[in-house]
Structures are given as C-alpha cells and as structure tokens.
Recover the amino acids of this structure.
C-alpha cells in the first residue's frame, strides 16, 4: 500500500546552480587578491622607499636568497606545526570528550583549563626555553598547547550542549549510555569541534613564529628575524607572505573537510 | 481482511507518583497516586492545559522518567527504562540530522543487533508505508516538516513496538499536512494493532484518532473527564462535520475551559 503523497514538496538541493555560484565566488576572491597585489605594487613603486619593497622586488629577493634556503626554513616551520598541532589535537580529543561527558572530570579539570586558556602560550616560551633550551621539543610543547586548549574548550562545550531531545530519541530506540555518547553526542559535537580546530591552527602559527623569532636557527620566524638583523626588508616580507599563504591553504583545507563532515547541518 | 495479529499490550499506571524538585521548597508532585489503564490496541488521547503533567505521563511510560512510587506496566512487564516494546514520536521530529532517512530508521534495529539484511528489509517496508522510499538517502534537512514526521514515525514503527507514545506528533505541521498524516496514522494502525498514547492540543485530532479521550487537569495530574469515542475504524475525516462530533468537541472544550487557570 502506498499512502497518498503529501502536497508539500521537499526543497531538493539544486546542485548545478550552486556549482556555478561557487565558480563565481572563487572569481571574486581571486580578483580581490589581484587587486591587492596591484595596489601594493603601485603604492610601493610610488613611494620608492627601501622600507616597502614591491611584490616583484620580493620575488626577486626570494630568488636571490635561493629557493633551497627558503624551502628549508619553510619545511622547518611546517614540521613544527604538524607535530605540535597533531599532538595537541590528539590529546585534546579524549580530554575534551571526557571532561564534557563526566561532571566529575569537569569539576576537577575545568579550573585548570580555564586558567591555562587565559595564559597565551607565548608567555610560556621563555619558561620552556629555560627548561628545555632552544631545541625542537620546547617548540612542539608550546605549539601543542596552543592547539590543545581551543580544541579542548570547543569539545567540552560541544559535548555539554548535546541535544537532549536527540539523546532521548536514541534512548527510546534502545541506545545505552555508550551508544548515546558514540552515536549522538560525538556527531553532534562535530561542528563546534571543527571551529576549535580552525582556531587552534591560527593559534599555532602565531605561537610558532613567536617561538622562532625568540629562539631558533631555522624556520620562517627565524628568517624574519634575520631580515630584521641585516635590514633585509624583502626577506621579512617573504616570511610574512609564506606564513599567510600556508595559514590560508591549511584553513581552506579544513574548511573543505568541515563542509564534508558537517554537511548535515541546516544552514541559513 | 483477516484480523491483525495481536501485537499490542495494555499500558497500566498503578498508583504512580512523580515529583520534580522545585526551585526552592519541597519537591512538587506532578503525578500523585495516578491510576490508568490504556487498553491493548486502543488509542487513548490525552488532552489538557500546558503543564498539567501529560508529557510527564508519557515520559514515564516511555521509561525516560522513573516513577518515585508505584509501577507502570506494559502487558505483563514492569517498565523500568526505555525499551523497544514502546516507540516514541516527538513533537519536533528528533531525527538525527547527520543520518540519512534510511539510517535514522535503522538506528533502533542497530541497537537491538538486528542482522543487516533483515534491517534493510524492514526499513524498506516501513519507508514505503510512510511514502518515503524515494527519499531514503536524503538527509533530514532536505525534508519538509511532514516528511520528517513520517520518517520519525517509520523509525518508531520499524522496531516492532507494542505501543506507540506520540507527543503532539503533528503539532508542528500545517493543517493540510496534519490531516494527511492523521489519515495515514489511522491506516497504519488498522494494519498493525498498537496501543497508542496520543498527546495532542487538537481536539478534532483527539476525537478522530482515539477510542477514548481523557481530559487531564493538574498538576498533580488527574483525569477530569473520560470520554469513549464510539465511531468504528477506519474513520472518515468528514466525521468532523457531524453534529455528534461537534457535541463531543463542545463537551471537551467545556471541560478544558473549566481547567484553564484564570
């Protein structure tokens, strides 16, 4: 038996127009970047100041420094980000989930998390340098902390804010506490988890560069500090541009992931 | 048509008490020494002013709440927690937004470890019954309100409950969609006998769908009026326009006006 269909039709997703719109959005973004570069070129060319190199001048300086040197510094920074970030996030996932889920754990750990959250990881750099020197370990630690805190805080909130109606719905369908946690609480916390991941990434770059400025012999932050030392403005710009581009690329990557994994969300 | 197999169980409230902690002072009884038998295979509609305790009764029957005193039984079994013998449909659908229509419907079967092939089979059958088969792979956000509630109904039915607990199931829908879904629910109940507890604010819906309408006052909740609705099933929605229906509606209204806090 097929019962009469309902008169109201569902809003079916229109795939093609959205793709076309996506192309237009990319075009707008690219146009904006090009305009910015042209403006920079125009202003720098007009000023003719040694303090503001032109984009072409920066590229020229980069080639002069040698792509190998830049790539080595870039790789050093990326490695620190990758290791510190991965470590911080991997630790944040169980901590955030458990602290969010168990009231006892929350009461015990929340003061610590809130305390640490308000201390910028930067403030810890001098301390970890005293403790561990200027090797790689202290950098992993501060970057890890910079990633750990936002992700933990986001996950805790995501778990606490789990939809109680959905939890009830799962329970009446026979879900036990573990099922509820795995199948309702965790998927429900995904959107806010991704927000935490993206904030953490920005935090990590900031902390990394500061750490490299203060105490390092490689990395983009080191490059920038060398540029300052030898009054090589172009070198400073190379560092800034590369940091920005790497951050942008990573954030876009995350955004795509996020769109995939939280496609179920109702968006306005 | 052969008589449907006996798949329903009576729900019995026996001297049930439930208190909720107040902001200050002692816990306030929402349910106090409450007795009710909802006959097997019958639909019992609960109407009453907001806050009178009807949702608490439903949550007690669902096992989402535990009574402080007394017992609630379904058939021979005492209720102490949610179980697959009782399906619940919530007012705002409560579909898992990250699961497709199909996976929403499979949820309960996965919880009771139904074998995969059987799971598919059952879900196909119930999705077809509520007219959602073409939308099996859609996410809830792509569905209209009526379709979401059909999905929720299929999800509750697919595990084969002996009772359905419906908390204002069509309250969030527009009048046309509501009418359609009322008719479909009647058709489903004609095929699969269930004991139904129906909370509604729509008196026409209560009279049309139920064997018996209870007007509740409270808290603490009590049955102020118990009206048997004699029309045979399946009922025609045109019944609403008959004088007898109007008289029943008026009688219920009088009782509700009486209960309204002034």
């Amino acid at each position: 038996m097929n019962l009469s269909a309902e008169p109201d039709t569902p809003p079916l997703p229109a795939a093609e127009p959205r793709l076309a719109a996506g192309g237009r959005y990319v075009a707008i973004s690219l146009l904006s970047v090009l305009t910015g570069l042209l403006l920079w070129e125009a202003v720098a060319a007009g000023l003719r100041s040694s303090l503001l190199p032109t984009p072409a001048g920066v590229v020229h300086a980069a080639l002069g420094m040698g792509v190998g040197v830049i790539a080595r510094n870039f790789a050093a920074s990326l490695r620190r980000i990758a290791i510190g970030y991965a470590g911080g996030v991997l630790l944040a996932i169980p901590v955030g989930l458990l602290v969010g889920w168990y009231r006892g754990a929350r009461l015990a750990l929340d003061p610590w998390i809130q305390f640490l959250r308000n201390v910028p990881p930067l403030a810890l750099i001098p301390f970890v340098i005293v403790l561990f020197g200027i090797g790689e370990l202290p950098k992993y630690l501060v970057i890890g902390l910079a990633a750990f805190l936002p992700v933990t805080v986001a996950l805790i909130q995501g778990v606490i804010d789990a939809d109680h109606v959905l939890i009830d719905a799962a329970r009446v369908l026979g879900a036990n506490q573990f099922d509820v946690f795995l199948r309702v609480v965790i998927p429900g916390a995904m959107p806010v988890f991704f927000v935490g991941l993206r904030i953490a990434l920005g935090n990590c770059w900031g902390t990394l560069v500061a750490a490299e400025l203060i105490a390092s012999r490689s990395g983009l932050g080191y490059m920038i500090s060398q540029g300052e030392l030898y009054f090589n403005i172009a070198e400073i710009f190379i560092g800034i541009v590369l940091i920005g581009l790497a951050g942008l690329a990573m954030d876009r990557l995350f955004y795509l992931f996020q769109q995939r994994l939280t496609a179920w969300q109702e968006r306005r | 048509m052969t008589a449907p197999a006996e798949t329903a169980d009576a729900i019995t409230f026996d001297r049930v008490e439930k208190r909720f902690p107040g902001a200050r002072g002692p816990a306030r009884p929402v349910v106090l020494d409450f007795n009710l038998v909802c006959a097997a295979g019958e639909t019992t509609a609960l109407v009453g002013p907001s806050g009178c305790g009807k949702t608490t009764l439903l949550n007690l029957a669902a096992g989402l709440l535990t009574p402080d005193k007394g017992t609630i039984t379904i058939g021979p079994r005492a209720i102490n927690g949610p179980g697959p013998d009782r399906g619940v449909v919530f007012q705002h659908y409560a579909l898992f937004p990250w699961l497709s229509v199909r996976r929403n419907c499979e949820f309960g079967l996965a919880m009771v470890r139904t074998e995969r092939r059987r799971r598919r089979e059952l879900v196909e059958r119930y999705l077809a019954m509520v007219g959602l088969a073409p939308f099996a792979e859609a996410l809830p956000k792509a569905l209209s309100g009526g379709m979401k509630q059909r999905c929720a109904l299929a999800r509750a039915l697919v595990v084969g409950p002996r009772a359905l607990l419906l908390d204002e199931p069509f309250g969030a829908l527009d009048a046309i969609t509501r009418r359609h879904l009322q008719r479909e629910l009647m058709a489903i109940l004609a095929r699969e006998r269930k004991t139904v507890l129906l909370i509604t604010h729509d008196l026409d819906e209560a009279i049309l769908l139920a064997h018996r309408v209870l007007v509740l006052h409270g808290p603490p909740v009590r049955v102020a009026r118990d009206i048997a609705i004699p029309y045979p099933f399946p009922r025609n929605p045109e019944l609403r326009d008959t004088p007898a229906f109007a008289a029943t509606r008026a009688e219920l209204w009088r009782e509700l006006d009486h209960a309204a806090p002034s």
Q: What stands out?
A: The two ends of chain B are 50 Å apart (CA to CA). Residues 53 and 74 of chain B are 20 Å apart (CA to CA).
